[in-house]
Amino acid sequence: MKAPVSWIRELVDLPESVTTEVLTDRLTALGLKLEAVDSADITGPLVIGRVLTQDKEPQKNGKVINWCTVDVGDANGTGEPQGIICGAHNFGPGDLVVVVLPGGVLPGGFEISARKTYGHVSAGMICSARELGIGEDHDGIIVLPPDAGEPGDDVLGLLGLDEEIIEFEINPDRAYALSLRGVAREAALGFNVPFADPAERELPAVDGKAWEVVVDDPVGCPVFAARLVSGFDPAAPTPEFIKRRVEQAGMRSISLAVDVTNYVMLELGQPIHGYDADKVAGALGVRRAREGERLTTLDGADRGLSAEDLVITDDSGPIGLAGVMGGATTEMSETTTRILVEAAHWDAVSMFRTGKRHKLTSEAGKRNERGVDPLLPGIAADRVVELLVEHGGATAEPGYTLVGAAPERPAITIATDLPARLSGIDITAMTTVENLRAIGATVTEQDADTIEVVPPTWRPDINDPYDLVEEVVRIVGYDQVPSVLPRRATGRGLTRTQRLRRRIGRTLAGAGLVEVVSFPFVGDATFDKLGLPADDPLRSTVGLANPLSSEEPAYTTTLLPGLLEASSRNIGRGAPGVALFETGTVAFPADNGPAPIYGVHTRPSEAELEKLVEALPVQPQHLAVVLAGERRRAGWWGAGADAGWTDALAVVRRLAADLGVTLEVASTARMPWHPGRCALISIDGVEVGHAGELHPSVCASYGLPARSAAVELDLDAMMAAATDVTPGPQFSTMPVAKEDVALVVDAAVSVAAVEAALREGAGDLLESIRLFDVYTGAQIGEGRKSLAFALRFRAPDRTLTEAETSAARDAAVARAAELIGAVQR
Amino acid sequence: MSGPNTDYDPVEVTTLKPEEVEAARDAALAAIAAATTLDELKTVRTEHAGDRSPLALANREIGALPPQARKEAGQRVGQARGAVNQALAARQGELEAEHEARILVEEAVDVTLPTDELPLGGRHPLTTGAELIADIFVAMGWEVAEGPVIEAEWLNFDALNLGPDHPARTMQDTFWTEPADNHVVLRTHTSPVQARTMLTRGVSEGAPIYVVCPGRVFRTDEYDATHSPMFHQVEGLAIDEGISMAHLKGTLDHFASQMFGEGITTRFRPSYFPFTEPSAEVDLICFVCRGVDPESCRTCRGEGWIEWGGCGIVNPRVLQACGVDSERYSGFAFGMGIDRTLMFRHGLEDLRTLFEGDVRFTTAFGSEL
Ligand SMILES: [Zn+2]
């Protein structure tokens, strides 16, 4: 909402001391937030000039320029005529024009200086409306009326360029402030000065004779006012003050009739529609549209109507989308002499829905959908008639049609101490009553502690005691709210999951991984890039009805795409390698039908809440890791090492060790991993994720170094399995006995299997077992490999004898031979 | 020394002449002093204190002397050997110390060599930022509540007094999941977590609600330097007997000073949010210029204040929908963007740096915010 300061001051008697800054500060404190103060972006000297001479000089390029001398009085300091070049031709010697002299600055920071051009020194500029930012007309310069003033007179005020316009951000509950009436009322409230309500008018008696109006839907249209003028001069110009104010509000000046309706809407907040009465056939009707009906609106759009749309009709059918936009067939034109003026009160929800359905935002719709004062229709129509008579030579036809009446507002009962209790400010009952009266409410005292309040008609937003509290407190001032810490919180700290998530993040960061946060939007192309087969369950996603990009219309089922993109971005920006991780939500469709919508007056039952939760997608927390390129850096110490499948598994194992989780690792084949280098990770036989080297095609499609590796785990499962209270470890301080064994096994046998067999055979004396070498070659034989293990034995209570140690080792080897056919080398 | 003992080999006993013993001792001491390395000293030791050294040979002859001469000869040779051994030990110590010192010198390295073999890891500032905020509130006895990002429409809107035709529903353009009549959305704020907290936990005597809800939220904003379809919020909710705006102000002032420094407070401006009434915008006094000569301040752009978030007294309609006795209890709620907070706290120019995953961004923040 843009409000010129001069207009505000016209309606409310603000003292001189209230500067624009003081005014905006106070209004912001009351809830009308200052967005900006616009003033013409011009610094003088901008003066009236009289053209003395005008020499037309044709140029080589075919253009003709004017070399003028202009009398600017003493404004240039010399009193001598000013020589100025001008390209426009809509003026001649003797005309008064607007001159900006050297040193002036025009909108856009355009500084004026004397400069040499077309063989002359042009000392200033003769201005067009567009150059001054006050209109679109740039075909010619501004020619002022002969009585505008004397050469050298300052012209900023004359053109309204010294006018400050306050732009407010109006919250949905303050629709009344979408008018000068509302803004001025707040200003009066803010400075406790009298307010001249422009809505206070003497109205003629309602006789229903202005036009026949039939309202079929009094719920959608509680009040409808109609007036008629005739003998209107369609060529009459819009008075300067109306034109300027309409433009200052950000609207276009179109014609007197249209400008007047907009002017009154700005003044009062009531949208008004004018019809060319000669084009309206028969009575005006108000009803819901019928399915299949169509209407061409003023913007030229041919619209199919819905049975929910409120329309204005005449004998021909719908002629307007009620409260939102008029129709083309009855539009006022340059030949219109009889104007039918409509001002009506509309159901805000209908307006909102119609605007949304037709994707129509208009100044009228904006006000109607937020709620307008239902007392205004007759008043606004009368004001329009007055201005059309005054400035358009029209005659007000007798007759005033008013259908319906403003609905009664129920009184709100409120305890007088509620504002004090909810604000924490010491607000007396008297202040409460005074402030409610100040906003225009009718207050009736019930008993010592209770009042009944009927809100003013222009405040449809006030319905509850708490709404009244806000009104009282904002006038007292939010800056009066004291600062007091509540002291009754008795929280139990972070939850187990919250603590575990922090721990996991720290462990991974400690392992040299960098956390990233990615968008969760994916599409078919994302899964294609991962090489997922057509029937892969990860392709079954929760779709978005209105995605930002049609390429990514779903919520992701895997965190890898975001991480791979980020890896690729880092590599592309020159990183020799990256190790990234992300934790976040992935989603799988629940397919349990729609989530119910319940009422809001009581709490839903437990069963109802359960239904709500069941309808939501399954949303586990995942953890993903991507390791690409250099993992250990090369340097003066020697070669570095690129990330590979082992790094992926190392991360998983490190995390499991930190959480006290025992993992099972087995080979598997799964995209996007390398089919021979993918580990299936399980806990107690339940799959929790995968780790390994990425498939070469995936590395290629993301532009990542060969052998890049990745992990994706179900973090919820990992956290569920985490050890809460670690049992104190028992270990012996007796001497250790070490034995190495090398076993030859079939190449397909996993190290884990051999290790398990050795462990089983070695018995209780075995403390640890660690593979330290893998050898394949001719000596071992085709399809075989040699695995060398270091075994450590220790007894809890004694030094082991050589015999005991070898016996244990032999038993281990024997078990491996028995279970896997391992042969000791 | 007594006269020659003619019962013994005259050649052998000549070595026990006092001057010879002294000469051998002096030669040994001179050689020891002349040894400059441990290896040289080893040779000297063999020559002058070894089994074949003159003093060792002399010592061996003592037994052949007449008994009356043994004592004196023994003393003389013993003293000489003692002196040599002592000198050897001392010199050994000296040379060892020299050797050790030299090794340390030789082993000196250039400590300015790079040592960055192991890559630096790091957690994202959005994570550590949310933790910092959570810790501030947990320290006040609050709890941290969480909920799903894909949420029921009823919980995201209706329960929060945003009815189907509420204009605010268009203010926050929502991602709807398919099919659109499924009434499931990507949550547009973390407020449904507040609703869930009230619904599942309830409020009762001695069990008030004090929770913060940090989390990821979505709106259909085009992605640019200041907008993102995904961003992060932290909201707070307190429901207790006698809660007022003063408690809200106290809590936010405390939060502000913990987050931005001692003395940083907030101010309220009237505003509108469907789930609160009265509602307020929260501004933070600029933590850079502290409102003193803000004209040249880049952080607050000359305002002296920074817009931080929204807050208010919980609308009783919300309490009703969530099963809280609005006659007995009142509450306050607030919410602010974590991303935006980080942007002005750390002077970030472009919101997108948070979501690009450039490791140079994340590692710059260290392990805590
Ligand atoms: Zn500042």
From TrEMBL, chain A:
FDX-ACB domain sequence ranges: 732-825
Classification via Gene3D superfamilies: 3.30.56.10, Bira Bifunctional Protein, Domain 2, Ferrodoxin-fold anticodon-binding domain, Nucleic acid-binding proteins, Phenylalanyl-trna Synthetase, Chain B, domain 3
Biological process terms in GO annotation: phenylalanyl-tRNA aminoacylation
Domain B5: 407-483
EC number, as in UniProt: 6.1.1.20
Note on cofactor: Binds 2 magnesium ions per tetramer.
Predominant subcellular localization, coarse grouping: cytoplasm
Record keywords: Aminoacyl-tRNA synthetase, ATP-binding, Cytoplasm, Ligase, Magnesium, Metal-binding, Nucleotide-binding, Protein biosynthesis, RNA-binding, tRNA-binding
Pfam families (UniProt xref): B3_4 (PF03483), B5 (PF03484), FDX-ACB (PF03147), tRNA_bind (PF01588), tRNA_synthFbeta (PF17759)
GO MF annotation terms: ATP binding; magnesium ion binding; phenylalanine-tRNA ligase activity; tRNA binding
Key word Secreted present: no
Names of the cofactor(s): Mg(2+)
Gene Ontology CC, one term: phenylalanine-tRNA ligase complex
Location(s) in or outside the cell: Cytoplasm
Catalytic activity: tRNA(Phe) + L-phenylalanine + ATP = L-phenylalanyl-tRNA(Phe) + AMP + diphosphate + H(+)
Stretches assigned to the TRNA-binding domain: 40-156
InterPro entries, per database record: aa-tRNA-synth_II/BPL/LPL, B3/B4_tRNA-bd, DNA-bd_dom_put_sf, Fdx_antiC-bd, Fdx_antiC-bd_sf, NA-bd_OB-fold, Phe-tRNA-ligase_IIc_bsu, Phe-tRNA-ligase_IIc_bsu_bact
Annotated residues for binding of Mg(2+): D461, D467, E470, E471
Protein family membership: Belongs to the phenylalanyl-tRNA synthetase beta subunit family. Type 1 subfamily.
Subunit structure comment from the entry: Tetramer of two alpha and two beta subunits.
Name of the protein described by the UniProt record: Phenylalanine--tRNA ligase beta subunit
Species, as recorded: Nocardioides albidus
Organism lineage: Bacteria, Bacillati, Actinomycetota, Actinomycetes, Propionibacteriales
Gene this protein is translated from: pheT
Automatic annotation (TrEMBL), chain B:
Reactions the enzyme catalyzes: tRNA(Phe) + L-phenylalanine + ATP = L-phenylalanyl-tRNA(Phe) + AMP + diphosphate + H(+)
Subunit structure: Tetramer of two alpha and two beta subunits.
Gene Ontology cellular component annotations, sorted alphabetically: cytoplasm
Obligatory cofactor(s): Mg(2+)
NCBIfam families named in the record: pheS
EC number: 6.1.1.20
Family: Belongs to the class-II aminoacyl-tRNA synthetase family. Phe-tRNA synthetase alpha subunit type 1 subfamily.
Gene designation: pheS
Originating organism: Nocardioides albidus
Binding, Mg(2+): E277
Protein name: Phenylalanine--tRNA ligase alpha subunit
Domain of life: Bacteria
Boundaries of every Aminoacyl-transfer RNA synthetases class-II family profile domain copy: 135-343
Record has Aminoacyl-tRNA synthetase as a keyword: yes
